[in-house]
Amino acid sequence: MATTTDNTVVQAWKKQLDMTMRVTEAIIEGSTRMHEVQIEAATEAHADAVATQQSLASAASPADLLRIQTEWLAANQKKSMEYWRHLYEAAAETNARVMRCLGGAAPKGD
User: Fold this and answer.
1) Is the alpha carbon torsion for 93, 99, 105, 110 positive or negative?
2) Would you say 101 and 22 are in contact if contact means Cβ atoms under 8 Å apart?
3) pLDDT in tens, 23-66
4) How far is the C-alpha of 98 from the C-alpha of 110, rounded, in Å?
5) Which candidate among 3, 8, 20, 41 keeps its CA 20 to 30 Å from the CA of 57?
6) Cα gap 34→45, rounded to integer Å
């Protein structure tokens, strides 16, 4: 009788640890994806800043400066929205994966 109880406890424990490891994996993968989004955005922002500085150096009139500033601001607004959308998508997918892991671990009613 103790063997059956021991097996039941061991199986339940294994199931709990497996679920914990799957949740951990989902969180790590989601965090990694968010980090990748941040690195991509930072790299692109740096390249844009360098290009904008070069454009500013060659500006010859107030109209040129206004055009460069306006283009830079409009592009940054668009890129900012894309950045936050990508972060949201990564977070939402991570949340969905975690919920699937937890849903699979929930006890089933008989």
Assistant:
1) negative
2) yes
3) 999 999 999 999 999 999 999 999 999 999 999 999 999 999 99
4) 25
5) 41
6) 16
